Amino acid sequence: MRHLITPLDFSVEETEALLDRADDIAANPKAYASCCVGKKLATLFYEPSTRTRLSFEAAMLNLGGSVLGFASADTSSASKGESVADTIRVISCYADICAMRHPKEGAPLVASLYSKIPVINAGDGGHQHPTQTLTDLMTIRAKKGSLSGITVGLCGDLKFGRTVHSLIMSLSRYTGIRFVLISPKELRLPGYVLQEAIVKKGLPYQEAATIEEVMPQLDILYMTRVQRERFFNEEDYIRLKDSYILDKRKMAFAKPDLCVLHPLPRVNEIAPEVDDDPRAAYFEQVQNGVYVRMALILKLLEVEPC
């Protein structure tokens, strides 16, 4: 039995195979419509979520399976003090696989140590979000034809952005990757991510204060929101929340084949006027999330297409 807690739990070869399967699902969805009949997915979401939770549910339903779970810690026994270890022991009696989102870093890892079913990390605090990374990789590969030889700009909240951390860790395993880190000094990439995923591997990177100064060199621009829920001080959040806003004026500096991604939800960091730009791929990214999670469920349950 395997779990997915960080994107590094899968080798590059396994990741590529999973993305290939996701591509096939996108092209032939009917071929997978009954693969998980009789299987149950539990969604254990201790934090609010729209895309990730519904994407997992849609993925399992598309495979012919069923879904159970909770969408808030307040509606679970966590509100009574139940531990993650006990919760997963119980859920293991009800479901075949589970996806867990939790505000505390490491909670899905703890769950995996006590679980009798595969555990998928659907986001743990400011730490990791491996299924969003798989979604990002699928979208980048579709747009660029490869995950190698690209310059990736990551903009906004790089300190608390778990999607950023996971994406950097995963992309750093490919050749010819260059990172451009765009953030205010208060929201810089954590030192442990910078050292482990970039510096120790000798990958080229640049830190920038504005989008405009680096936009012409980017193949991918990964925008992120400043996450209010990660701040202890409301004044700091208000001061930093609109540090970067992508609009038509800034897009004019970009390559014709730039790909703009965003894990969503967005607040103000991408102006609605950018949505109609053919380089905006964040809603396509959302659709890819369903295909990737379908492929992941099949892999962890060791189910082959019908």
Automatic annotation (TrEMBL):
<dbReference type="GO" id="GO:0006520">
    <property type="term" value="P:amino acid metabolic process"/>
</dbReference>
<dbReference type="GO" id="GO:0004070">
    <property type="term" value="F:aspartate carbamoyltransferase activity"/>
</dbReference>
<feature type="binding site">
    <location>
        <position position="129"/>
    </location>
    <ligand>
        <name>carbamoyl phosphate</name>
    </ligand>
</feature>
<feature type="binding site">
    <location>
        <position position="225"/>
    </location>
    <ligand>
        <name>L-aspartate</name>
    </ligand>
</feature>
<dbReference type="InterPro" id="IPR006131">
    <property type="entry name" value="Asp_carbamoyltransf_Asp/Orn-bd"/>
</dbReference>
<comment type="subunit">
    <text>Heterododecamer (2C3:3R2) of six catalytic PyrB chains organized as two trimers (C3), and six regulatory PyrI chains organized as three dimers (R2).</text>
</comment>
<dbReference type="Pfam" id="PF02729">
    <property type="entry name" value="OTCace_N"/>
</dbReference>
<feature type="binding site">
    <location>
        <position position="265"/>
    </location>
    <ligand>
        <name>carbamoyl phosphate</name>
    </ligand>
</feature>
<dbReference type="Pfam" id="PF00185">
    <property type="entry name" value="OTCace"/>
</dbReference>
<feature type="domain" description="Aspartate/ornithine carbamoyltransferase Asp/Orn-binding">
    <location>
        <begin position="149"/>
        <end position="298"/>
    </location>
</feature>
<comment type="similarity">
    <text>Belongs to the aspartate/ornithine carbamoyltransferase superfamily. ATCase family.</text>
</comment>
<dbReference type="GO" id="GO:0006207">
    <property type="term" value="P:'de novo' pyrimidine nucleobase biosynthetic process"/>
</dbReference>
<comment type="function">
    <text>Catalyzes the condensation of carbamoyl phosphate and aspartate to form carbamoyl aspartate and inorganic phosphate, the committed step in the de novo pyrimidine nucleotide biosynthesis pathway.</text>
</comment>
<feature type="binding site">
    <location>
        <position position="162"/>
    </location>
    <ligand>
        <name>L-aspartate</name>
    </ligand>
</feature>
<comment type="pathway">
    <text>Pyrimidine metabolism; UMP biosynthesis via de novo pathway; (S)-dihydroorotate from bicarbonate: step 2/3.</text>
</comment>
<feature type="binding site">
    <location>
        <position position="132"/>
    </location>
    <ligand>
        <name>carbamoyl phosphate</name>
    </ligand>
</feature>
<feature type="binding site">
    <location>
        <position position="51"/>
    </location>
    <ligand>
        <name>carbamoyl phosphate</name>
    </ligand>
</feature>
<feature type="binding site">
    <location>
        <position position="80"/>
    </location>
    <ligand>
        <name>L-aspartate</name>
    </ligand>
</feature>
<feature type="binding site">
    <location>
        <position position="101"/>
    </location>
    <ligand>
        <name>carbamoyl phosphate</name>
    </ligand>
</feature>
<feature type="binding site">
    <location>
        <position position="264"/>
    </location>
    <ligand>
        <name>carbamoyl phosphate</name>
    </ligand>
</feature>
<dbReference type="GO" id="GO:0016597">
    <property type="term" value="F:amino acid binding"/>
</dbReference>
<keyword id="KW-0665">Pyrimidine biosynthesis</keyword>
<feature type="domain" description="Aspartate/ornithine carbamoyltransferase carbamoyl-P binding">
    <location>
        <begin position="2"/>
        <end position="141"/>
    </location>
</feature>
<dbReference type="InterPro" id="IPR002082">
    <property type="entry name" value="Asp_carbamoyltransf"/>
</dbReference>
<keyword id="KW-0808">Transferase</keyword>
<dbReference type="InterPro" id="IPR036901">
    <property type="entry name" value="Asp/Orn_carbamoylTrfase_sf"/>
</dbReference>
<protein>
    <recommendedName>
        <fullName>Aspartate carbamoyltransferase</fullName>
        <ecNumber>2.1.3.2</ecNumber>
    </recommendedName>
</protein>
<dbReference type="InterPro" id="IPR006130">
    <property type="entry name" value="Asp/Orn_carbamoylTrfase"/>
</dbReference>
<feature type="binding site">
    <location>
        <position position="52"/>
    </location>
    <ligand>
        <name>carbamoyl phosphate</name>
    </ligand>
</feature>
<dbReference type="GO" id="GO:0044205">
    <property type="term" value="P:'de novo' UMP biosynthetic process"/>
</dbReference>
<dbReference type="InterPro" id="IPR006132">
    <property type="entry name" value="Asp/Orn_carbamoyltranf_P-bd"/>
</dbReference>
